[in-house]
Amino acid sequence: MELPKDSDTQTWLKEMIPTTQKILNVESKARGLIIVNSVAKAGQVTRLLNDLLPEVKVREISGRIDREQRLQMQSELKDAKQPVLVVGTSAVDVGVDFKIHLLIFESSDSATVTQRLGRLRLGRHRGFNAYTAYILIPGHTPWVMSRLQKKVSPNQTVTRENLAVAIADAFDPPKEFEKYRHRWGALQAQGMFWRMTQENAKVSQSVRDRMSEDLQRVYFQSIESARGYWYKKQKTNVEKATQKQLLSFRGGSYKAHYKVLSQLGDSYAQEKAQRWSSRADQNLLVHVLNGLLTAWNISKYLPQPLSEIEKYLLCLGLTLHDYNKYCNGQGEETPNNWEVDEIINLCRDLGEKLNFKLFWDEWQNYLPEIAYLAQNTQNKVGTNIYPANWPVPKIKDRRHLEIPLRRLLAFGDIALHFSDPADIDTQT
Question: For 107-118, how does the pLDDT look when each residue is reduced to its tens digit (9 = 90+)?
Fold first, then answer.
């Protein structure tokens, strides 16, 4: 089911209430499962369905519900006489099993889609008259539905093997963009160099030389070929607009920021959108790279060098430290600083979306450490630095999470906004 571009899961569920009631009423002991991609949305959907389906027992199972509560809830729902709808996140994929005939879930990668559809296998959950599944595909990924329709027709009967092939083809990332990073990453890096020469060429030359050596290893010849794109005298309107976007705040425009902020009901939407779109050096990619460069350079002066694992944690902790901006952009609630399970689950979801595994194969083994650093990078706002509030870390010496890792990230994040040497004393 492809959602309209201006719609969302909650709106679709609201419109589907008559159909949902009809599906549940067919069964004497109706059971359904709804899986969404964030804890915040799970809570919103649970409240919505409790209001719209008073005769149905609607319960939430997500990262904010501990294991003991989940088991109690499972037992309660198993014996319930009225229809049951469970609303959950990826937490229901591990260790939670329900006998269901109705499944609704937001799309993800092909492996997850296949696994979730497996919950409706006839041999696994016998005893129902019919089995129904809805995969909710967001409107901003139209290629997914287009690819599915090429492999599977409406009302067509397909084998499990052919369905798996169709899902893999539709939901896996597009392969034709394999060179995207080398093309646009190199352009953006050269754009940073170009801006530095506009501000103070003498001071920035040694910094640019050192950065060029590192970037050359990542982008190879692409970094040099991108140089002419910035320094050419005659630029087309398209080239000018592209360059502006490559260096703009979070890669967006005034119009894009204003639209999101207005949807969130922000009373200062116009003022914030104007301020954000005019800021330099605030593309999120640039922000993270600059913070890491600062922290990395300072780490060389530590009494004890960072271990390999600590270097990985430094990179991934800062990469996720602005997760609240992702939540705001999606129109979702940001977890509170004491909701540790939600923070960890959100970091897991973002790590999977960003393909952390390509950077560090063991990253999920150190998820609590990554989440701790992401939550506590900002030194004053929303911190939760007490180790007792977090799962036991796997890192050899947990004290290193606070000193030096958290302190390095906090300074790197703050240093980006310095405009005067005295800021070191007044802002840290």
Answer: 877 888 888 887
